[in-house]
Specification:
single chain, 5-stranded antiparallel β-sheet, 3 helices, about 15% strand
């Protein structure tokens, strides 16, 4: 009876982990779409302002709106980046969710960021992992 219970619990845990990974993959794809759309929208508005309203107050407001769209997109993308998955330290293999300001200020290459591990305190390139 206990063996069946243990096997069933292990299967349930593996299924939950798989669902978490799928959910995190979806969120990271959504993050890419948000960044792409906000960047394209901001660039389109800047190009429109350059051709239609050169040297006017309208140009200033269009560029301001473009930057606002871009910053809002970055804000939502970083929130998704923080919520989807974990970062793993290279040295101690501690997995954690960093603070928003850490993500904002950290250098990054793809899904790796240069951050300080809260467990061992070493500053290394931390890789994004989808499940704990």
């Amino acid at each position: 009876m206990e063996d069946n219970y243990k096997i069933e619990m292990e299967n349930l845990i593996l299924e939950m982990r798989k669902k978490e990974e799928e959910s995190n993959k979806y969120l990271l794809r959504l993050e890419t779409v948000i960044i792409f759309l906000s960047t394209v929208s901001a660039l389109a508005i800047i190009f429109i302002s350059a051709f239609l309203a050169s040297g006017t107050v309208l140009m200033f407001f269009l560029i301001l709106i473009a930057l606002l769209i871009l910053f809002i997109g970055i804000y939502f993308a970083l929130n998704i980046e923080r919520d989807a998955g974990y970062y793993e330290c290279r040295y101690c293999h501690h997995r954690y969710v960093p603070a928003f300001i850490s993500l904002l200020m950290a250098l990054h290459i793809g899904r790796s960021r240069l951050m300080k591990c809260p467990s061992c305190g070493k500053r290394t390139w931390q890789k994004k992992v989808l499940s704990k």
